[in-house]
Design a protein that fits this description.
The complex is a heterodimer of chains A (470) and B (194).
Chain A lengths: L4 H8 L1 E3 L6 E4 L2 E4 L5 H9 L10 E4 L15 H17 L2 E3 L9 H7 L8 E4 L13 E4 L2 H10 L1 E4 L3 E8 L8 H12 L7 E6 L1 H4 L3 H9 L8 E3 L4 H7 L8 H13 L10 E6 L6 E3 L7 E3 L13 H14 L14 E4 L7 H11 L9 E4 L4 H9 L2 H8 L2 E2 L20 E4 L14 E4 L2 H10 L5 H9 L1
Parallel strand pairs in A: 3-4, 3-6, 4-5, 6-7, 9-10, 9-12, 10-11, 15-16, 15-18, 16-17, 18-19
Antiparallel strand pairs in A: 1-2, 2-8, 13-14
Chain B lengths: L5 E9 L6 H4 L19 H4 L22 E4 L11 H9 L3 E4 L4 H8 L4 E4 L2 H13 L3 E5 L4 E4 L4 E3 L4 H9 L3 H6 L2 H11 L1
Parallel strand pairs in B: 1-2, 2-3, 3-4
Antiparallel strand pairs in B: 1-5, 5-6, 6-7
Classes of the chains: A alpha/beta (470), B alpha/beta (194).
EC number (chain B): 4.2.1.33
Function (chain B): Catalyzes the isomerization between 2-isopropylmalate and 3-isopropylmalate, via the formation of 2-isopropylmaleate.
GO molecular function, one term (chain B): 3-isopropylmalate dehydratase activity
């Protein structure tokens, strides 16, 4: 029977199945960080249990690490989480890229970078953006701390088989339009819970033409559409990205693995439970204006009105979002002034993201009323950006150039947007208070964030780029 | 984890959709290394004004719902982050049951690991419960065994639940202890993959 890649990977990982029970699924890679793991390790200690397969675990510190003046952590509770992870990794024999280790970075950036992330794997982490790793054709999903403990102890999880969904992105991306705009457009069109109970496969011409880093941006925000996971079938782009990476198979083994990976692709005629379609030709650079990731529009649009919505719950959600955001119905998006720019996060802090932003700001300067920071996704990205001169472009333009971590995406460290102020952010969530109590977040691509940094308000990056090209 | 079956309480009507885990437990409270003590921070930025005083307009501060153990909300409850601190905060505050038309997957899963019963009812049923709960304190009786929610007027709302998770909640089982009984299967799988 023709199968989707989702079913193939799932079926290959079933350890035990029985009618009336979820499947017992084997986990190939378990990524850990300081915020969602301490209670799991403590649970093991209390029950006198071991980590079953420390060799399938990899830990780093990203959520609350400072991005300047390392290694000083001002917050004693954050510091305790950091030292707790160090202690736990040592006690249980788990490999750790600590705060100052050259491999340190956001967990979803270093997994692929090190070649730990590979097609066909089941990958979990106590973080919802684990869906990022799906870009390689893996089933990767976020789990809670109880499940972290379960995986540490048994290397398995009980999971009901999710439904399958294809999201087909037809057509070609226009000039100045990025992977971030595709995923924001998908979420705006279909809603933040369209994927609930499903694993999504992204297909279509526009997806195939993306680089691995762009694919990671798409899969990263699958959770923002409610999906359990999102993935893209492996192809030559995937294989060439992985070739030679430290934890990928090497030499002849790699060629054999590559053959197996390609065979994972969805069979012709395989049926998905649901198929959605969007045309890339119609996607503009996106800006969110509300308090969840579906509340966004193309840059040429204006903020909608309550009259555009059907139900009273939706109307009231719009009103309360605009009240929080300090915006009015019908305002053009280009009229929104910003005070902060954050280029970073597991969504958009890889080298190509920094390059895209640098291309826009080169030779220009950040607007006097804007504070702008760049937080590379990993120490490796930081070093690469420094080696090719990107860091200097940012610094010359008036950006702060920081150490790697999650930073202002969720503001667990000192990188906080003050109450009432507005941030153009390349991150993934614009929930109330996400970047600081009372802070107002607008999600955009790196090039749109860079253009806003220069203008002091949102602008259509296509106009900025066109001016450069002429 | 504490078993759960019959829960009797007035409902707390949280008339919002897409309640995300950042609202349930804000990031500044995620730094503890224990599972307990999160209740005082539940819905912190909705419960308290920026100056730290109580927001009297927020439903959790309404005297009619004090001591309630049943929370009712609109669609897609618990969306966003995987933080289990969200169900920990809900439980620590005193809720044992959350009723909504739909839940985000990770939050839904996390409830079952912590003895919280997530119940899905239709949008129309939720609208009805929210209306009653907002009008006056409204008593519900939840029976997990019977898969019913009964209003104080006697109206019965039936719900579906995965039989595996029902059993877990009714018995308060520790999932890891159960899984360890499958050690032979796990070892065999590993051998076959090697």
């Amino acid at each position: 029977m023709a199968k989707t890649i989702i079913e193939k990977i799932w079926d290959q990982h079933i350890v035990y199945e029985e009618e009336g029970k979820p499947d017992l699924l084997y986990i190939d890679l378990h990524l850990l960080h300081e915020v969602t793991s301490p209670q799991a390790f403590e649970g093991l200690r209390l029950a006198n249990r071991k980590v079953r397969r420390p060799d399938l675990c990899f830990a780093t510190m990203d959520h609350n690490v400072p991005t300047k003046n390392l290694p000083t952590i001002n917050d004693p509770i954050a510091k305790k989480q950091i030292t707790t992870l160090e202690k736990n990794c040592e006690e249980f024999g788990v490999q750790l890229a600590h705060m100052e280790h050259p491999d340190q970075g956001i967990v979803h950036i270093i997994g692929p970078e090190l070649g730990l992330t590979q097609p066909g794997k089941t990958i979990v982490c106590g973080d919802s953006h684990t869906s990022t790793h799906g870009a390689f054709g893996a089933i990767a999903f976020g789990i809670g701390t109880s499940e972290v403990e379960h995986v540490l102890s048994t290397q398995t999880l009980w999971q009901n088989k999710p439904k399958t969904m294809e999201i087909r992105v037809t057509g070609k991306l226009g000039f100045g339009v990025t992977a971030k705009d595709i995923i924001l457009a998908i979420i705006a069109k279909f809603g933040i819970d369209v994927g609930t109970g499903h694993i999504v496969e992204y297909t279509g011409e526009a997806i195939r033409s993306l680089s691995m880093e762009e694919r990671m941006t798409i899969c990263n925000m699958s959770i923002e559409a409610g999906a359990k996971a999102g993935l893209i079938g492996p192809d030559e782009t995937t294989i060439e990205y992985l070739r030679g990476r430290r934890y990928a198979p090497q030499g002849e083994e790699f060629e054999k693995a590559a053959e197996r990976w390609i065979a994972l692709n969805t069979d012709e005629g395989a049926q998905f439970d649901q198929v959605l379609e969007i045309n890339a030709d119609e996607i503009e650079p996106f800006v969110t204006w509300g308090t969840n990731p579906s509340m966004g529009s193309g840059i040429s649009a204006s903020i909608p009105s309550a009259a555009d919505y059907k139900t009273e719950t939706e109307k009231s959600a719009l009103r309360s979002a605009l009240e929080y955001m300090g915006l009015e119905e019908g305002m053009p998006l280009t009229s929104i002034d910003i005070q902060h720019v954050f280029i970073g996060s597991c969504t958009n802090a890889r080298l190509s993201d920094l390059q895209a932003a640098a291309d826009v700001i080169e030779g220009k300067h950040v607007h006097p009323s804007v504070t702008a920071i760049v937080v590379p996704g990993s120490r490796t990205v930081k070093k690469q950006a420094e080696d090719i001169g990107l860091s200097q472009i940012f610094i010359d333009a008036g950006f702060e150039w920081r150490e790697s971590g999650c930073s202002m995406c969720l503001a667990m460290n000192d990188d906080v947007v003050p109450a009432g102020e507005r941030c153009a952010s390349t991150s993934n969530r614009n929930f109330e208070g996400r970047q600081g109590a009372g802070a107002r977040t607008h999600l955009v691509s790196p090039s749109m964030a860079a253009a806003a940094a220069v203008a002091g308000h949102f602008v259509d990056v296509r106009d900025v780029k066109a001016a450069v090209h002429n | 984890m504490e078993p759960i079956n019959i829960v009797e309480s007035v409902l707390t009507p949280l008339d919002k959709n897409n309640v995300d885990t950042d609202q349930i437990i804000s990031k500044e409270f995620l730094k503890r290394i224990e599972r307990t003590g999160f209740g005082e921070f539940l819905f912190y930025h909705w419960r308290f004004n920026p100056d730290g005083t109580k927001n009297e307009n927020f439903v959790l501060n309404d005297p009619r719902y004090q001591g309630s153990t049943i929370l009712v909300a609109h669609e897609n409850f618990g969306c966003g982050s995987s933080r289990e601190h969200a169900p920990w905060a809900i439980l620590d505050y005193g809720f044992r049951v959350v009723i909504a038309p739909s839940f985000a997957d990770i939050f839904h899963n996390n409830c079952f690991k912590n003895g919280i019963l997530p119940i899905e009812l239709s949008v129309a049923e939720i609208d009805e419960l929210l209306a009653k709960g907002k009008e006056a304190a409204y008593q519900l009786t939840v029976s997990l065994e019977d898969q019913t929610v009964t209003g104080e007027n006697g109206k019965v709302y039936r719900f579906d639940i995965d039989p595996y998770y029902k059993k877990m909640l009714l018995n308060g089982w520790d999932e890891i202890s159960l899984t360890i009984q499958y050690e032979d299967h796990i070892a065999a799988y590993e051998k076959q993959q090697a």
